[in-house]
Amino acid sequence: MLEIEKTYLVEKIPINLSEYKGHQIKQGYISSTPSPLRIRQNDNKFELTKKLPVKEGDFSMAEELNIPLTELEFKKLWPLVEKYLEKTRYYIPLENNLIAELNIYKGDLEGLVFVEVEFKSEVEMKLFKAPDWFGKDVTQDDFSANSFLAGKNFSEIKKYMEQ
């Protein structure tokens, strides 16, 4: 499946966040860039994912291959993980039937907040106007990729955010 998305730093977390259910995500990377192999637990769902870049140097599009896993398969694969991260994700409706995926990181990355929006087409992505609570567009910045963030701490990432 083709994934077309933009990623933003968050200026301010919406005050009505309690209206949305938080989903607990734990994801680990079995291999590193350029196209990492990831396992993810999203609440009680488990999957193995491979993201393949569509255009070199363009992080807004990737071919995403997902394979559902059982909890037992996930637990058997977890020891192979080189690095991981945990976050709470909130799905917040936007205009034009779009969804903001607000990611509030935990553990060593506590303090980091990104929001992602997935689109059906490149045209839809180019026409998108970010809401006021979104911050800087960091889609094309290496540090916004979860595979880069995994295994790091907030102070390491903060220097990238300030550039």
Characterize the main sheet: 8 strands, antiparallel, barrel
The whole-number mean of residue pLDDT values reads 95
Strand order of the largest sheet: 1-5-4-3-2-6-7-8
Proportion in helices? 10-25%
Quaternary class: single chain
Give the tally of β-strands.
Answer: 9
**Order of H and E elements:** EEEEEHEEEHEHH
DSSP strand content: 35-45%
Would you tell me the structural class of the helices and strands? alpha+beta
**Number of helical stretches of at least 4 residues:** 4
The CA-CA distance between the termini, in Å, is: 33 Å
The rough form would be described as globular
Radius of gyration: 15 Å
Q: Enumerate the spans where pLDDT stays under 50 for 5 or more consecutive residues.
A: none
Structural account:
With 163 residues, the protein is an alpha+beta fold. It is 15% helix and 43% strand. It is built from four helices and nine strands, in the order E-E-E-E-E-H-E-E-E-H-E-H-H. The protein has helices at 71-77, 122-127, 146-149, 154-161; strands spanning 2-10, 22-29, 37-42, 45-53, 61-69, 83-93, 99-105, 113-119, 134-137. An eight-stranded antiparallel beta barrel has the order 1-5-4-3-2-6-7-8. Strand 2 (22-29) and strand 3 form a beta hairpin. The radius of gyration is 15 Å and the shape is globular. The termini are far apart. The mean pLDDT is 95.
